[in-house]
Amino acid sequence: MDILTEAEAFENSKMSHMSTSDRVVASREAKRLILAINEIYKETKEPELMDMMKRLTEKKRKIEKRLKGRPDTA
User: Fold this and answer.
1) Residue 73 within a domain
2) Which pLDDT value is given to residue 70?
3) Per residue in 52-65, is it b (16+ CB within 10 Å) or e — as a string?
4) Confidence (pLDDT) at 69
5) How many domains does the chain have?
6) Residue 58 forms part of a structural domain
7) Comparing C-alpha atoms, which of 73, 68, 34 is closest to residue 54?
8) Cα–Cα distances in Å, from 64 out to 16, 23, 25, 44, 50?
9) Are 30 and 21 in contact (CB under 8 A)?
10) pTM, two decimal places
11) Which residues contact 37 (CB under 8 A, 6 or more apart)?
């Protein structure tokens, strides 16, 4: 269950003052963690794993929203 400790550390890490490349790395890390937890969830069906995946997905969405920036209004 090492992936769960990684996921908790990622979830509790600060995301302020990140460069664009740091955001890309964080987004990829979130995706990797979500997919790994999903494989465990398929076998065990533990609701705690689903909750963790939801929290990580929300954090990933926030990071990606910041990466995409504001749409141009031309």
Assistant:
1) no
2) 74
3) bbeebeebbeebee
4) 81
5) 1
6) yes
7) 34
8) 14, 8, 11, 29, 21
9) no
10) 0.85
11) 3, 4, 7, 49, 52, 53, 56
- Provide the pLDDT for residue 73: 66
What is the predicted pLDDT for the residue at 39?
A: 95
Long-range contacts of 51-54 (CB under 8 A, 24+ apart): 52/4, 52/7, 52/8, 52/11
The two three-digit tokens of residue 64, written as one number: 């990606």
Helices 47-68, 2-12: crossing angle, 10 deg rounding:
40
Please, how many CA atoms are within 13 Å of residue 68, restricted to the half-sphere of its CB? 9
Residue 40 belongs to a domain: yes
Domain presence at residue 37: yes
pLDDT at position 74 is: 60
pLDDT along the chain (74 residues), means of 10: 89 90 94 96 95 95 88 67
